[in-house]
Amino acid sequence: MNATDTSHCPRGHRCEACGVERDDLRVEVVVFARLGAGCMTLCPPCADSDVDPPVTASTAARFVQQHGWHLRRAAVAADDALIERLRRGETPPGDPTALALAAWRAEAQHRPED
Ligand SMILES: [Zn+2]
Ligand SMILES: [Zn+2]
User: Fold this and answer.
1) In a domain, 38, yes or no
2) What is the distance in A from the centroid of ligand 1 to the CA of 42?
C-alpha cells in the first residue's frame, strides 16, 4: 500500500499548520517521527517549507490514525475496480493482488468511517 496516496484524503478549508484560508490548499503526506505517515491540509508556503508543521504529539497521532483510514478507503475503492475487472474476466481469480485487497476490504468493513 502506498502511504503517500492522498486520493482519498479529504481536503480541509484552512491550512492545518498556519490556519490561513485560501483556495489553493492541498493535502500533503507528512511523516512524523516515531508515529509514521499522516496527512495534513497545507497551504503552498507551509507545504514547501523545510520546517515540520507545528503540531502537538496528540494531533500528529490523530493525523496518522486518520490517514490509515484514508488508505483503507483507497484500498476498498481499488478493490471495487478489481472486482469489476474480475467480473469481466480480465484478472485470473487466483491473482494474489485480488486476494490481498479482499483481505484489506474485510478489515476495512470493521473500522469506523472517520
Ligand atoms: Zn500554511
Ligand atoms: Zn489521509
Assistant:
1) yes
2) 5
